[in-house]
């Protein structure tokens, strides 16, 4: 592989005009496609194989025209202090608002609060339910404007009015912190390279790659039913890996220049060596993201595939456009250690004024690695204990999906949620819809009544509406109001209790009882994700383990990489629980409402963090193996790997943390949580696992770290990540056969 990539790098360097033209054309094509594409339509959240989804599908069949997937809105009214909603003036204002809402072109129905028993017991709060023919993402702006105007007119009349539901859902905003994250990345690159030109290359290529990826997602959003979160995730991961991959190749290019090679040759060798690591690091990320398909949740699968496509683009750009841009930059990208105009650094080994000449001072990476190999047990112990302590909160992990109660208090949806909780109880924000399928029953009406009675006798139930049968009389819906909020454990227990009670009714009458609604759907999603976590972990870690065996030609190094990943991801989950569930530092993170951790967070972090963790593993340890196969002793190879790779890996980790942390400012709670979780996971993995635990373990293992059974060594393909095939005869020495034996050692 190194030889092929070496030729590709030299070709891109020589034919830079052609390469640049291709990528600019692709960016233009994707941009035009995004601009001309129709707006994203219904990004339905379906969960095949769950009871909630089965009930939802049954409703669409048995209640045609009911728009089961249509948007909903709850317009909540609160009377001024000392007044009631049943007062004549307030009642007239509500009636006028209901009439205005009913005139909308996309409105299916509006329930009058005074005829639908939607006034609180103390008479201070009432609500009108609005049902639309289309989903929230398909609503026209004029319909949303009409809803907001009607609410505003009621406010002008003296009432407190807020609007909940998904009718006003908007594309999440990431905020200014995303730009700050990119700015931090730029500063880190300038410090790392000491040159604005060299620092600008990774940023430029990453932005082009993300532009192509996100524009392609936007262009296909309507056809593939992609949600707005999909493009945000692709941007988040694409920016992080795009900058990192380009950073490693540019850094290796400068190192090759420092060894006296011509620029085209240096570009070829940089792509052949660091580019090989980029390919395998990118493959691990792609495997982790595409592997999300095993969960069998279409939305999650689409998010994973879209993000994986953006990562693949980042890899291709790093391998082709970076050498092309290096050709354009010419002498403005200086060799590593060369004196730069920006920071005034001196060339390695060059004596400074007023100081005697001598050997160059060891860099921080070299000094740190030398310390670790001298004290491996102490470093290993402290690293494991530290991550173990950070992981402790994960033991109390509670899972759920965000609802309006997790929105910022500045939003009308959150204020409507709070008003409904105040007037009708917390469970009113998460009603359960029970669907009774009595098609196989001899007495459907008796079955409906039996289910209603069974539910009323359960603990935790505030209200149960009478059965509402369809025209055929074979199916009915019953609405159940819990006494606990939608995301609570008590509500989850009630859903299971209703399903258990439905089993008794089915045994007696033959009627099947199903529980659905957004609350039940969230519960089923959480359980489905929990059940899929272990198979997903086995699949992703197993495939990446095999891939790393090929890369490192070792059994213990990939095993150590996987175990280190488990430590970092558990510590990161512990940090997420501490902030978003326990409320530690929640104000600093902009978390206004603590509660269960998003149910897809554990499996998502396992996938993404594993892929990113293997990035650092590949980049850092391939340098160590390269030194080892070239004749250095195991401990010295560890130090050499840090000498060449620690500074760049540190810069890459800081950049990735800055990019992910930039999404903490998002208005979408899911994006906020993902941004924080990935940022803290990168910190744990890069600075504790890869920088401390990995060298300590390798120092303890010695030559055993690179052991591989001979039969397996012969069976594995030689991908030559270390670039052994690029070494000249002079570099190999006088005995090529001896050198080949060293590589197999």
Give a verbal description of the structure.
This protein has 745 residues and is α+β, with helices and mostly antiparallel strands. Helix content is 62%, strand content 7%. It contains 24 helices and 11 strands. The protein has helices at 2-14, 16-36, 51-62, 88-102, 141-156, 177-193, 196-224, 228-258, 263-290, 298-329, 364-374, 376-391, 412-424, 444-456, 489-509, 518-552, 556-581, 586-589, 601-629, 634-661, 669-701, 710-715, 729-732, 736-744, and strands at residues 72-78, 107-111, 125-132, 160-165, 399-400, 432-437, 461-464, 468-469, 475-482, 512-516, 597-598. Strands 6, 7, 8, 9 and 10 form a 5-stranded antiparallel β-sheet that branches. A hairpin with a 5-residue loop joins β8 and β9. The longest helix has 35 residues, at 518-552. The protein is elongated and about 90 Å long. Residues 343-357 and 732-745 have low confidence and may be disordered.
Largest sheet report: 5 strands, antiparallel
Strand content: 5-15%
Total helical segments: 24
Task: Give the mean pLDDT.
Answer: 82
Distance between the termini: 20 Å
Tell me the number of strands: 11
Share of helix, binned: 55-70%
Stretches with pLDDT under 50, minimum 5 residues: 343-357, 732-745
Give the overall silhouette: elongated
For this entry, what is the oligomeric state of its chains? single chain
* Sheet/helix structural class: alpha+beta
Q: Work out the radius of gyration.
A: 30 Å
